[in-house]
Amino acid sequence: MANKIKLNIGSNKVVLKKSSKLVGVKTKASSNIEDTKGVKKKVLKNLGGFEIVELKRKGNSCDQKLDALREKAEVKVGTHVYYVEGSVRPLLPTGEIIIEFQDNTNLEEQNIVFDEYSLEVVERRGDCCVIAKVTANSPNPIKVAKYLQDISMVRNAEPDLDTLLDEYDGEFIAPHDELVNHQWHLKNPGFVVDAQWPMKKGADAKVWEAWQKMGNMGSSNITVAVIDNGFDLTHPDIKDKVSKPYDLWTDTSNIEQGDPRFTHGTPCASVAVARPNGTGIVGAAPNSKFMPISGTSYSLRATEKMFKYAADNGADVISCSWGTTDAAFELSEMKKAAITNAARNGRNGKGCVIVYAVGNDNFDYVSYYAQHPDVIAVAACTSKDEYATYSNRGPEVTICAPSNGDWPITAARAFWDEGVSWESGAYRYWRDGKDRGHQYKHFGGTSSSCPLVAGICALMLSENPDLTAKQVKDILCQTADKIGSPQEYDARGHSKKFGYGRINAHAAVTRAITMRGGSGSSDTQDPSTTTVPTPTPPAPPVVTNPTTGTPSTSTGGSSTSTGTATTSMSTGRGIFRFSVQRQEPSGFGVQMGAFREYGNVLIYAERMQKLFNEPIIVSINKLAGDTVYKMVVGVFNTRQEARVLKQVMADNGVTGFIRNIKDLK
């Protein structure tokens, strides 16, 4: 049987694909399938009456391995596991088929069908509807159903399939792609699965957590355009999701493939949008559509054409892992205008989210394209949360994202890619020489961190398509994780190496969700001029312990006991407009701090109001003879409503506790 088969399921015609490593088995009593030769591990205990197991990778094809498994004395039945193309949800045929014959089909004619495919009738539901099951002499049930759907006397035939259903608790079906455990940039376990190489656990983009928060892996209504050269549109992780391809030089949809000089676009695209198909890798936004735009150019006309095409044809996010740091090629005002037009007027006026790599020259300035104020300029950090030393630096850096510099990223490889030599000069595709599949390779640079950010932006727009491009950029800045030394960051929370920190997909998606339907707002000023809250501000506020009343310094999630209130923040000055009204001592809110200096009250009140769009309550108290200002965010009738806000605040890096407002007196 072919690895793919088209089949009618309900009112849909779907393409089913066999898993390359998962199968279903029924064993005899008291048998432990994990003790069986050829089985790597059990994945699911029960799906359609079968145990789902992962087969050991090396050796024969999945068909041959399953046949060998069926020969084992402890195995009663074995079957393939399938996926609908574009989905990560496993499907398992139970062995039964629901057959609807045409009206007036007699029993003799029906029996001919049963005999032809060695089917056994399980149950009759009227004259023309039968539930049958396959026997040892039947083809597999997927294949039988396909045959039956092509018989004139059969109105419809569907295999009975079992799958995992959503429980609406934020869980998602994890991808089973073979190399997903190598994708440490999505979820870093602290080690490389098949190499003796330590990493820092949690030094990742928090993409896995974002998927869990969403309960899915993004929306097919969002399109990521990748402008680059060398797209392998036959690659299994890319080919079935291409939307409106465009070749800049031929002005057609026919993208040239096979030129060994150009291979860069394939791995870049895969980091952003590689689809979940049971093999290979997955991108940060694997359900998004992929718009390949082939042809990078410094030409004004080409620059205008590429960005206009992307914006006019529905690109939500545009990823550009290219640019120049040559001073002779700064952007003209007309080139800047071409980027500005897409960034501000695309997406029906909300603006295309444009992401640029800062470059890999180890310079103290970034690519001239990444300097554009309307783009997200992406630097690189490593699997140990350290600065990637090749990554360019500068005040325009928006954010950093995981890439190589310690251990590389695993990405798709174009079929004509001749590879590069790593440190030893001996290996073409893999840093350590260990083959992990001929269609993949190690990859890195800001070329990899850029599409990772682009994919995360697509996740944000999947949850809140009403966000403007400016809001997406601001959210990334506001929700980033500070890595490296605190001395790297200025008073605004910005670093020339890391931008506003390492991207946090979970926090960014959470913030996008809270802003749906107009609830909440983000600061839409340029991040280089806006005040962005940081997990470790220059002088942290005092947080009163709700149990003991002991003041402690807030450090973005951890607290250290101290006996005195903090001194003023270095940023505790500015011009503010505010109104004051007395608050009745009733209701509940979230207390996030206590301050000694009134300037700090104003700074943090402004930040909290921008972040959460809730009223700010300040209580004036005495602590050890000094005046202390306790700050509470929100006023709610019930404690439960306050708990909801507390979680939203925690997701955005702001710690607090539930406070009964009457207790503030």
Give a verbal description of the structure.
- The protein has 665 residues and is an alpha+beta fold.
- The protein has three domains: 4-91, no CATH class; 180-518, Peptidase S8/S53 domain (Rossmann fold, 3-Layer(aba) Sandwich); 542-664, Alpha-Beta Plaits (2-Layer Sandwich).
- 21% of the residues lie in helices and 25% in strands.
- It has twelve helices and 25 strands.
- Strands 1, 2, 3, 4, 5, 6, 7, 8 and 9 form a nine-stranded antiparallel sheet that branches.
- The chain is globular, with a radius of gyration of 29 Å.
Report how far the terminal alpha carbons are from each other.
75 Å
Name of the level-1 CATH class of the largest domain: Alpha Beta
Number of helices, counting only DSSP H or I runs of 4 residues or more: 12
CATH-defined topology of the largest domain: Rossmann fold
The name of the CATH architecture of the largest domain is 3-Layer(aba) Sandwich
Count of distinct strands: 25
Shape: globular
Low-confidence region ranges: 166-171, 519-572
CATH superfamily of the largest domain: Peptidase S8/S53 domain
